[in-house]
Structures are given as C-alpha cells and as structure tokens.
C-alpha cells in the first residue's frame, strides 16, 4: 500500500470533516479507555515506587479455617503462629516480611489526621525500597526488643515539623512517645504493599489471634530472582499443609496463594486455589474486547454511511477501470489513517484525563481515592493497545470494503446505491 493511497485518503478526510471527526473521536475514546485501564493495572501489579522487587515477590494475605462438623468457617489475615512457622521453615526466600496495617487517626497539635499505621519487621525494608529523605529503617534488634522507634512519611513530617529535620524527635502514638529514626518519601495509595504513613516494629502490636492460625498479619516472600516464584509457592504450600496436620481432624486450614501482585489483584477475596496467569490475562483481554466492540460497530456504521455518500465517486472509478482490490486498498488506507489519528489523540487524552481526574480513575485499598498517582505506560500495555486499535481498524473497514467490491458501476451511475 503506497503513499498515493494515503494522500488520497487524507484528501478524502478533508472533504468529509463530519465523518472524519466522528470516526477519529470514536477511536480516540476507545484508545483512551484502554490506556487508562492499563495504567490502573500497572500501578498495582508492576514494579515501581518503593515496590521495586515486586516481580520476584509473592504474597500470603488470608487464611480460612473450616469446621467440617458444623460447616462453619473463620476467614481473616494470618495469625502470628503460622507467620512464625513460615518465617522459620521457608528456605527459598531471601527475605520474609510480616506486616499488619490499620487505619489510624493520628492526633497531634495540628489536629486529627487519618493515616495508615503499619506494624512490620526489618525484612520489610529489604523488600520495599523506600526513598529515605533522612534517617534509617529499624533493625532486627530493635524489632526483637520492641523498641519504641518509628519511621514516618514525608507528609507526616512536614505536617508536624515543617522544614525541620524530624529524625531524633519524638512523636506521640499508642499513648506513648516514639523516637523518629527515619523519614521516607510519600508513596501513592494505589501501591498496595508499600503505601503507609507510620511504621513501627510488629512486636508492639497487641492484637491477638482471631482464631487458630488466623490474626492480623500478611506475608511477603522475596526470592533471589523471578525464577524462584514457582519454587517459593510450592514450598509455602507444603509448609502450610504440614502445619494444618496439627489441627484436630474436624478443622481444615486453607491459605490461598502465595500470589504474585498480578494474581493477588484478580484473586481479591476469592477462595480458589490458584488464580493463574492465563486466566488473569484472559479477564483483561475480554474486558478490552468488550470495550472495543461498541466503537467498532459504530465505525462500521459510519463507514457504511460514508461509502453510500460516495456512491457516484466509487461507481465512476470502477467504470474507468479501478479494480476491486484498488478500491479496497483505498478504503483500508483511509481507515488506517483515521485509526492512526484517533490513536494519537487517544494517547494524549489518556494522559490529560489521568492527570485531571486521578482520584476518580485510580483507587487505593478499600476503594479509597488515590492521594496521587504515577502516570506512565510501559511498552507491553502500549503494544496491546496498538494491536487492539489495528484489529479495530481492520474490523471496521472490512465490511465496507466487501460492499465496495460488489459494486455494480452501471447501477450506481443510474442513481442506485452501493
């Protein structure tokens, strides 16, 4: 398909501004929606911000304790007993971190500030790599000793101490003073595994287990590389099974996962044993196809109307020797040009809309509006979008192209329709 067809297509777009604008708008909106969805997935499932090791980390976040006699069950986060067992027995992970989080109304002289308080350990800071503005994280000794030390976010530090260095000063929490040892840069609330405001040693957590093996903790297991994920999953499930054998016969313990961040996003609160990479991607593809279907049908209708408007032109071209293949190539060139223009507009729109409405489009844990978002698109979502747009272009141009190939010039020139 040489440049002549595209020059003709550009001239045709100029001569039909209404249909051109309508088609470009339909494609642009579709591209914008697909790219925003990819941003939403990317912010919660791919490495970024403090979660630089996300691609080699798996998560255990929930346990289900079933009573086969009564049919009842308890479901909660993991208890300290199962967490301690796994931290002791698992050999493949190079870092294992437990953490519990709670919404906390932080009270100070500046008023009440809703915050996220995280109880965790020393390995947490190995798996999540924060930007320390000043100070350091707490050590294993400080965790074991239950030291009253705290790491705070930059926004908390600025709110409490303005431009002064917060490290070494005290801050009130849990009814007693904590010594600030570190200040970290703020992390977007869409980052499920690293967003927080206050971090203290988990040994200061007074919450007891909710039931046998159930409590308030989640686990992060980090391998040497991404290739360790399968082995870490198998080892963790083996140890969980061994631990469940200590329960009375009428009790059964089930712990979903471990999951990658991608799998955990699709599991949500499902109890299925394995979410699966393939099934997760299938959900994304079906969602994208569903979004594309309506604009594709609209483009087909627009193109058919456009072709009818150009009946005499196409009839004349066929009468003067234009082949079916030539006319099909021309229409596909027009469609490709419209698609390229719509894709470009959609790309710009996606960034503009994402920046204007981050709280509406991006949600943190418990469906809360995001405090801020890292707006970016990696090559894979962009490639998927381009392929999707190409399919949209072919699909919307195929039916009109077939109709053109069946045109009878004599009938059209006598006033008939295509």
Feature tags:
418 residues, alpha+beta, 4-stranded antiparallel β-sheet, 14 helices, 18% strand, elongated
Task: Characterise this structure.
The model has no long low-confidence stretch (mean pLDDT 80). The chain is built from 14 helices and 13 strands. A hairpin with a 2-residue loop joins strand 8 and strand 9 (176-184). The protein has helices spanning 3-15, 17-45, 80-89, 124-127, 140-144, 154-161, 229-244, 261-267, 277-309, 311-319, 324-356, 358-361, 379-405, 409-413; strands spanning 57-60, 63-67, 73-78, 95-108, 111-120, 132-135, 149-153, 170-173, 176-184, 198-201, 214-215, 218-222, 251-254. It is of the alpha+beta class and 418 residues long. The chain folds into 2 domains: 3-47 and 278-413, no CATH class; 62-258, no CATH class. Strands 1, 4, 5, 6, 7, 8, 9, 10 and 12 form a 9-stranded mixed beta sheet that branches. The longest helix is centred in the C-terminal third of the chain and has 33 residues, at 277-309.
Q: Ranges with pLDDT <50 over ≥5 residues?
A: none
Q: Helical element count?
A: 14
- Give the assembly state of these chains: single chain
Order of helices and strands: HHEEEHEEHEHEHEEEEEHEHHHHHHH
Q: What fraction, in percent, of the residue positions are helical?
A: 40-55%
Which term fits the overall shape? elongated
Strand content: 15-25%
Structural class: alpha+beta
Q: Roughly what is the average pLDDT, rounded to an integer? A: 80
> How many extended strands?
13
Radius of gyration: 29 Å
- Whole-number total of structural domains: 2
> How many strands, what sense, and barrel or not for the largest sheet?
9 strands, mixed
Q: Kindly, what is the distance between the CA atoms of the first and last residues, rounded to a whole number of angstroms?
A: 24 Å
């Amino acid at each position: 398909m040489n440049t002549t067809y595209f020059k003709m297509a550009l001239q045709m777009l100029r001569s039909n501004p209404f249909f051109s604008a309508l088609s470009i708008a339909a494609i642009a909106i579709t591209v914008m929606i697909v790219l925003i969805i990819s941003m939403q997935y990317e912010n919660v499932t791919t490495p970024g911000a403090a979660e630089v090791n996300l691609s080699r980390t798996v998560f255990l976040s929930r346990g289900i304790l079933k009573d086969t006699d009564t049919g009842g069950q308890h479901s909660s986060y993991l208890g300290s007993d199962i967490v301690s067992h796994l931290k002791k027995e698992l050999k493949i992970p190079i870092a294992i971190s437990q953490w519990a989080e709670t919404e906390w109304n932080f009270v100070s002289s500046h008023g009440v500030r809703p915050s996220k308080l995280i109880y965790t350990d020393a390995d947490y800071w190995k798996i999540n790599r924060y930007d320390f503005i000043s100070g350091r994280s707490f050590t294993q000794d400080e965790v074991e000793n239950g030291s009253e030390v705290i790491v705070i976010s930059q926004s908390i530090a600025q709110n409490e101490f303005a431009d002064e260095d917060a490290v070494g000063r005290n801050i009130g929490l849990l009814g007693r003073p904590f010594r600030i040892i570190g200040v970290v840069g703020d992390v977007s609330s869409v980052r499920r595994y690293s967003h927080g405001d206050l971090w203290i040693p988990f040994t200061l957590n007074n919450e007891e287990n909710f039931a046998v093996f159930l409590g308030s903790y989640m686990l992060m297991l980090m391998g040497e590389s991404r290739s360790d994920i399968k082995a870490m999953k198998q080892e963790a499930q083996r140890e969980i099974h061994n631990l469940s054998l200590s329960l009375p016969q009428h009790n059964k313990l089930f712990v979903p996962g471990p999951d990658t961040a991608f799998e955990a996003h699709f599991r949500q609160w499902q109890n299925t044993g394995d979410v699966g990479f393939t099934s997760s991607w299938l959900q994304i593809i079906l969602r994208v196809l569903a979004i594309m279907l309506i604009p594709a049908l609209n483009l087909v209708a627009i193109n058919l109307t456009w072709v009818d408007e150009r009946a005499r032109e196409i009839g004349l071209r066929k009468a003067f020797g234009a082949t079916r293949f030539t006319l099909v190539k021309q229409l596909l060139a027009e469609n490709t040009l419209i698609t390229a223009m719509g894709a470009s507009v959609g790309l710009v729109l996606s960034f503009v809309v994402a920046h204007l409405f981050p709280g509406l489009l991006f949600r943190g844990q418990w469906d809360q509006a995001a405090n801020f978002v890292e707006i970016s698109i990696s090559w894979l979502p962009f490639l998927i979008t381009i392929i999707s747009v190409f399919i949209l272009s072919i699909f919307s141009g195929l039916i009109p192209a077939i109709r053109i190939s069946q045109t009878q010039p004599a009938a059209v020139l006598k006033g008939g329709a295509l």
